[in-house]
Amino acid sequence: MTALTVRDLSRSFGGVKALTSVSFTVEPGERRLVIGPNGAGKTTLFNTIAGTFPASAGSIVLFERDITRLASYERARLGLARTFQITNLFQGLTVFENVLLAVQATEDIGFALGRPMTTYRHLYDKAGRLLDTWGLAGVGCQMVKHLSYGERRQVDLILALAGSPRVLLLDEPTAGLSAAESVRVVAMVRSLPREITILMIEHDMDVALDLADRITVLHLGQLIAEGDRDMIRSHPQVNEIYLGTE
Amino acid sequence: MSFWVVHALNGISFGMLLFLLAAGLSLIYGLMKILNLTHGSYYLLGAYIGLSVVRGTGSFVLAVAVATLAIALIGALMERFLLRRFHLQELPQALLTFGFLFIFADLALLIWGGNSQTLPKPEAFAHSVHIAGIVYPTYRLFLIVVGLLVGAALWWFQEGTRAGAMLRAGVDDEEIARGLGINVSLLFTLVFALGAFLAALGGVLGGPIVGVYPGADFEVLLLGLVVVIIGGLGSLKGALVGGLLVGLLDNFGRTFFPELALFTIFVPMVAILAIRPTGIFGRA
Amino acid sequence: MLMLLLPYAVSSYYLGLASKILIFALFAMSLDLLLGYSGLASLGHAAFFGVSAYTVGLLTLRAGASAWLALTTGLLAAGVTGALFGLLALRTRGSYFLMITLALAQVLWGIASGWRSMTGGDDGLPNIPRPDLGLPWSLADTTPFYYFVLLIVAAAAAILARIVRSPFGYALRGIRESESRMSALGYNVWRYKYVAFVLGGLFAGLAGCLYVYLNRFVSPDYVHVVRSAEVLLMVILGGAGTLVGPAIGAGLIILFENVVSTYTERWLMALGVVYVLVTLFAPRGIVGLVQEYWRRKSAS
C-alpha cells in the first residue's frame, strides 16, 4: 500500500493548464521532494492534493482511500496535513491558542458549546507539550503577529503536526528564512518520525537534496523526471531547465 | 396582447434604469473590490439636482449634464480622499459608503423637502407614438435606447481598451497594469466617478417616470443589489440581463400583486443564491 | 448590581430607556457572535429582530395567543429565518455576503411594508399588549417590565458568554482569522459558520420579542436596513469580538440618538457621521481604544 498515489492529475482554470496528467506514488515513510522552476505547478499540485482546488481530472489516493472528491477538511481528517508557503496562521490569537485550535480539531469533541475551553484540560496539556517539544513554550503567550518570521514558520509546522498526520505536505518550509532559522526548521523536519510520509516543495537545493529520498521534477505542469539524488543530478533535461539556476 | 406589450416595455425601460445603476456598482466592484452602498444616494441626488436645474433653467439636457457631472465629482472626491485609505479592506469601505448613504439621505431631505416630486419630461420625448398597434410614450422608448447605447459604450470600453482589460482582469494585476503604463490611481478615481455618473444618469432619466422622493435611494439601492446578485457582481452582461429581468419582474409584480410586489423579486433572488451564489455571470 | 437598583433611582421615562438599552445590548451581542467572533459581517441582522417581533405581534393580536406561545413561536420564526438565510448567504463571503444579507433583510422589509392586509404596512401593528405571564406584577407597568427585560437579557448574555468561551467559540475565532487554515486542520468551516449564524439569529429574535413588548408596537422599521446598520454600528463602536464592547456600544448609540433627537430631526445624518468617524478613527471601537491605551501605558 502506498502512502499517496496521484494518477493523471490535471488542473486547469480559465484556460490555463496548471497541471497536465501528473502521476506518481509516494511510499510510506518516504521523504519526497518536488522541484521545478517557477510556474512549474508545484504549489498547484499541493493545493490540488490538499483539496483547496478541485482537480479537473485524475485521481488522488491516500492510503487506499480515494480522496479526489473530498473537501479539504475531510482530507485533513484522514491524516493529510500541510503547511503554507505564505504564512497562514491565526494572526490575532496567541501562539498557544493557535496550537490549541490545531489540537482541538484532532480530538473529536464536536460542537462543544456548553463548557468553557479551560475545562478541557487534556487539550491544554497536549498543546503545552507540543510547544515544549518544539521549543516554543517561551512565546506561547505572544500573538502570532508579533513573532519573527522564522518563529511563525515553526508554528506553521507545529500546527500541521498536531494531529499526528500520516502524510505531510511541506510548502517551501525554509522560504524567506535566514541561515540560522533555516537550520532550525530543517532540524525539525529531519527529526520527524518515519510514521509521517513527507512531500516537500523546496527551492533551496542544499536543504532539499539533503533531506530527500526521491525527487520528482515538474516543468510547465508536467512531470518530467523522477528518481534519487544522483539520477536527478545527472538528468539531462533537468540540467537544461536549471542551467544557470542553482 | 397590447396589454402585455405595454407592460413588457414598461419593465424593459425600468430595467434599463436598473442596468445603469447595476453597471456602475459592478464596474466599481470589479476594479476596486468596493461595494459602493452610496450608489443609491448618487441616484437620488442626481435626480434632485436634475430637478432643480430643470426648474431653474427649463433645460432637460442641462439637467442631465449638471447632475451627472456633479455626482461624478462627488464620487471622485469620495474615492480619492476617503475610500482609498482602506484599499482592499472590504468592510471599512462598505461601512464608509454606508455612512454616506445616511448622510446624503438626510441632506436631500433637508434641501429638497419630504414631498414626492417628479421631473418633467423633456419636450422632445413628451409625446406618445403608435407602434405595434399600441400607443406608447416615447420617453420610455428613449430610455431603452439610452440604456443600449450606454451598454454598448461600456462594452467597448471594457473589451477594447487597455484600461478595460485591466478592469476585466481585476485588481490583482496592479503591478502589471503599472508596467503597461496605466496610471492605476487615476484609473480608480475615474472608474468610481464613472460609476457615480451612471447612477446619477439613472436618477435624472428615471425622474420623469419613477419620481423623486425620500427613500428612493434605499429602494433603488436594493433593486440594484438584487440585480447584481442575480446577474453577478462585476459583470456588465450580468448587469444588463439582471436589470432587464428585475425590471420586468418588478413591473409585473406591482401590476398583479401590488401587496406582495417584492416577492416576485425575492423568489428569483433566492433561486439564484441556491443554485449559483455568485450570480448568472458572476466570477466563481 | 447597579442595574438592579436602577428603578429606585430614576423616573419611569429613564427606566424605559434603560430597558431599550438592555434590549439593544442583547441585539448587538448577538451580532457580535457573527461579526466579532466569526468574522461574518452582516448588514441584515435586523431580519431576525423583525421577524420575531412581527410573529409575536401577529399571534398576539390576530390569534389571541398566550405570551408563552407567542414568545416561543417568535423565537422559532427567527431561528427558521436564520436557518434559511444562512443556507443562502453562507456560501459567499466578504462583500458578497454583506450584499446578500442586506438584500435578504431589505426584501423582508419590502414585504412587511407592502403587505398591508397582513402586517399593517407602513403603519405597523399597534396596541400589542404586554405579556401576561401569570406573575403577581403586571408587566404592563414600567418597573416590573424593566426587571423582566433585565432578567432575560442577563441570562441570554450569560449564555452567549459561555458559548464564546467554549471550544466552539474558539473555533469561530479561528475561522475569523483564517478559514483556509481551519479547513486544513480538519474543521468543517461552513457548518460552524452556519451554527453561529442561526444562534446569532435566535438571540436577535429574542431581542426583537422584547422590543415589540416594550413598544407595544411593531412596524417595518424593525427590519429596515437602517436598523441593521444601527446595530452593526453598536458592535463596531463598542468593539467587535468582546461581547461587552457591543453592549456598551448599544448604550452609547441609544443615548446618543436620544440626545440628538431632542435637538434636531437630523438623526439619520448624525448616525451617518458617526459611522464615518468610527470607521476612520476607531475601527477597533471603544474597547479597542481602551486596550490600546493600556498597552501604551504599560509599555512606557
Proportion of helical residues of chain B: over 70%
What is the end-to-end distance of chain C?
Answer: 35 Å
Task: Tell me the count of domains of chain B.
Answer: 1
Strand order of the largest sheet of chain B: 1-2
Tell me the structural class of chain B. mainly alpha
User: Which structural category fits the helices and strands of chain C?
Assistant: mainly alpha
How large is the radius of gyration of chain C?
19 Å
CA radius of gyration of chain B is 18 Å
- Work out the oligomeric state of the chains in this entry: heterotrimer
User: How many beta-strand segments of chain B?
Assistant: 2
Give the proportion of residues in helices of chain C. Answer: over 70%
What is the helix/strand order of chain C? HHHHHHHHHHHHHH
Strand content of chain B: under 5%
Biggest sheet features of chain B? 2 strands, antiparallel
Describe, in plain words, how this protein is organized in 3D.
The complex is a heterotrimer of chains A (246), B (284) and C (300). Chain A has nine helices and ten strands. The longest helix of chain A has 13 residues, at 121-133. Chain A is an alpha/beta fold and 246 residues long. The longest helix of chain B is centred in the N-terminal third of the chain and has 31 residues, at 2-32. Chain B has 284 residues and is mainly α. In chain B, strands 1-2 form a two-stranded antiparallel ribbon. In chain B, 52% of the residues are buried. Chain B has helices spanning 2-32, 39-57, 60-81, 90-112, 138-160, 162-169, 174-179, 184-210, 216-231, 236-256, 263-275; strands at residues 128-131, 134-137. Chain B starts with a helix and ends in a 9-residue tail after the last helix. Chain C has one domain (11-223). Chain C has 14 helices and no strands. Chain C has helices at residues 2-9, 12-38, 46-62, 67-89, 94-114, 116-119, 142-165, 167-177, 179-185, 189-215, 225-238, 244-263, 267-281, 285-299. In chain C, helix 8 (167-177) crosses helix 9 and helix 11 (225-238) runs parallel beside helix 14. The longest helix of chain C is centred in the N-terminal third of the chain and has 27 residues, at 12-38. Chain B binds chain C through residues 29, 33, 35, 37, 82, 85-86, 90-92, 94-96, 98-107, 110, 218, 222, 225-226, 228-229, 233, 258-263, 265-266, 269-270, 273-274, 277-278, and chain C through 41, 43, 87-89, 91-92, 94-96, 98-100, 102-104, 106-107, 110-111, 114-118, 224-226, 229, 232, 236, 266, 268-269, 271-276, 279-280, 283.
